[in-house]
Write a sequence for this structure.
């Protein structure tokens, strides 16, 4: 009996993960127009398909890491692509930089 319960619980856990999707997708802007979606390298035209492939749903939070000095056009293009596909929770972040000053 316990084996049957464990088997059912284990199978349900695995089966529901794919249907529920993921709560956050991380996109990083790489060089030469490439993007990384949760570690999968893609291009802007294939962005929404890749987001969906990693479990992104319309209510998924999408965090886009933009390198310093990246043109605003990159953010506009990514936002347009994601919004046209129905994604609404888009957050752009830049890597934090710390400066340490040691008094002499």
């Amino acid at each position: 009996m316990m084996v049957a319960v464990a088997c059912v619980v284990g199978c349900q856990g695995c089966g529901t993960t794919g249907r529920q999707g993921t709560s956050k997708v991380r996109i990083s802007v790489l060089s030469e127009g490439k993007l990384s979606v949760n570690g999968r390298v893609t291009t802007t035209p294939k962005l929404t398909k890749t987001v969906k492939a990693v479990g992104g749903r319309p209510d998924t939070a999408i965090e886009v890491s933009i390198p310093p000095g990246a043109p605003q056009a990159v953010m506009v293009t990514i936002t347009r692509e994601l919004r046209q596909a129905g994604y609404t929770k888009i957050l752009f972040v830049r890597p934090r930089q710390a400066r340490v000053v040691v008094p002499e």
